[in-house]
């Protein structure tokens, strides 16, 4: 079988790219190793930048998002008994964010793509990408117990951190920059109304905590835990007691409710350069990973495929390859900005087990600075709400 663009992975990156190309009449096939139910229920990100909302609107995939998404004009920081709200519109040229779960973005894109009769194959696991430096890169995959091949004009690896597309780049070409963090996140979903109208990021000497939400009835919360934590060691009572301690603030109470899901998420930063080799491209988590403290992961994936979709369509319709040739450099500038912001938010708010009291005082000084200086607060607001797309 042959297609113009072979896409590996039906996460936000692969699905948005496929919908963009399909609507422009560019033939593409998406190969997804898991089944539809798994892909649609995988709990991940929750905050969409304005640019992400605009990108989903541009492909007709923002109907439910516009109806159900929660518009947020700020976030609250808490530390040492202090609380400070960072206002987005006044500090970031009117920009704001939308709270709408990644699971819902994926459901919306899958439904639209299947309704269009587009080629989206579940249970199709890519094993390798060969011929990246030829005019006919080939994806070898298995589906229904059979080995198959898909020859392409271009291949885009949207297959996440553990995908296979990166391996198509020769060792001598691929450079990976990475940092691991000495902690992880325990994330929960709870059937209880959020105890705050906007997200609360809490620094505490016991560790970081984040209060987010999914709807007026469902809360999404995270707490910093040691590497290798087993979620089974954290029964509901222990989770709520620890969150209480970390969010503690006079006159504020954390509502409790049944926890319906819990999972541990490792924290890492990673960038693979370049994001293109020959006719194989990387987009989203396949190319870069950020710790979720800055709510950048999903939004970076969207930004990559907006740039790549524009470049592929231009090449197919005019023959010009200028945007394709600039893809990697164009995306990496934004990726590294987001990597730094995510690193800065993470190290400012988390308690390093090997850290000293001096480190804690530096974190408190950083947080005090954001509360006291509109310039420091604006830097956070501009990065959190996202830079305009290239
Ligand atoms: P994804 O990883 O979403 O999608 C890759 C797809 O490729 C998957 O469906 C996978 O099944 C498929 N695949 C992999 N190998 C394949 C193969 N060989 N053949 C075929 N298919 C293959 N970001 C935030 O901003 N906030 C958060 O709170 C947050 N929480 C996260 C929690 C977890 C557990 C993880 C892993 C990530 C989290 N992220 C968060 C980041 C996350 O949102 C990613 O940035 C986002 O999913 C990136 O989208 P994609 O690049 O499409 O990759
Ligand atoms: C979420 O709602 O899942 C979420 C929000 C903000 C973050 C990370 C996760 O920084």
Describe the structure using short key phrases.
390 residues, alpha+beta, FAD/NAD(P)-binding domain, eight-stranded mixed β-sheet, 19 strands, globular, binds arabino-flavin-adenine dinucleotide, binds P-hydroxybenzoic acid
Describe this structure in words.
There is one protein chain. By secondary structure, the protein is of the alpha+beta class. It has a domain at 2-48 and 64-70 and 101-178 and 268-347: FAD/NAD(P)-binding domain (3-Layer(bba) Sandwich). It is 36% helix and 29% strand. It is built from eleven helices and 19 strands. The strands form three sheets. Strands 1, 2, 8, 9, 10, 11, 17 and 18 form an eight-stranded mixed β-sheet that branches. Strands 6-5-13-14-15-12-16-19 form an eight-stranded mixed β-sheet. Helix 1 packs parallel to helix 6, helix 1 (12-23) packs parallel to helix 8 and helix 8 (297-318) runs antiparallel to helix 9. The protein is globular. Bound molecules: arabino-flavin-adenine dinucleotide and P-hydroxybenzoic acid (PHB). Residues 45-47, 199, 212, 220, 292-293, 295 line the site of P-hydroxybenzoic acid.
């Amino acid at each position: 079988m042959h297609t113009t663009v072979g896409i590996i992975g039906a996460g936000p990156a692969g699905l948005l790219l496929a919908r963009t190309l399909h609507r422009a009449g560019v033939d593409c096939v998406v190969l997804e190793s898991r089944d539809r139910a798994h892909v649609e229920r995988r709990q991940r990100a929750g905050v969409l930048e304005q640019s992400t909302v605009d990108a989903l609107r541009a492909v007709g995939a923002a109907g439910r998002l516009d109806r159900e998404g929660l518009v947020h004009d700020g976030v609250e920081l808490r530390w040492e008994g202090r609380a400070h709200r960072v206002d987005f519109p006044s500090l970031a040229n009117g920009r704001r964010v939308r709270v709408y779960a990644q699971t819902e973005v994926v459901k919306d894109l899958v439904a639209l793509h299947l309704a269009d009769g587009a080629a989206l194959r579940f249970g199709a696991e890519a094993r390798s990408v060969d011929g990246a430096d030829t005019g006919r890169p080939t994806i070898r995959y298995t589906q229904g117990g059979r080995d198959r091949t898909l020859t392409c004009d271009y291949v885009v690896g949207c297959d996440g951190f553990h995908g296979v597309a990166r391996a198509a780049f020769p060792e001598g070409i691929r450079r990976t920059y990475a940092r691991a963090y000495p902690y992880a996140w325990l994330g929960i979903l709870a059937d209880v109304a959020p105890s705050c109208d906007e997200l609360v990021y809490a620094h505490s000497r016991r560790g970081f905590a984040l209060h987010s939400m999914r709807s007026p009835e469902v809360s999404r919360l995270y707490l910093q835990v040691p590497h290798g934590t087993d979620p089974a060691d954290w029964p509901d009572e222990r989770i709520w007691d620890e969150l209480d301690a970390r969010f503690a603030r006079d006159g504020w109470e954390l509502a409790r409710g049944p926890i319906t899901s819990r999972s541990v998420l490792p924290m890492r930063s990673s960038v693979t350069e370049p994001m293109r080799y020959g006719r194989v491209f990387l987009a989203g988590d396949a190319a870069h990973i950020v710790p979720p403290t800055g709510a950048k992961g999903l939004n970076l994936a969207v930004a990559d495929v907006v740039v790549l979709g524009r470049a592929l369509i231009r090449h197919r319709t005019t023959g010009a390859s200028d945007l394709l040739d600039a893809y990697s450099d164009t995306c990496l500038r934004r990726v590294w900005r987001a990597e730094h912001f995510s690193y800065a938010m993470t190290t400012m708010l988390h308690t390093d087990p090997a850290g000293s009291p001096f480190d804690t005082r530096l974190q408190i000084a950083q947080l005090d600075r954001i509360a006291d200086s509109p310039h420091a607060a604006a830097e956070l607001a501009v990065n959190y709400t996202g830079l305009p797309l290239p």
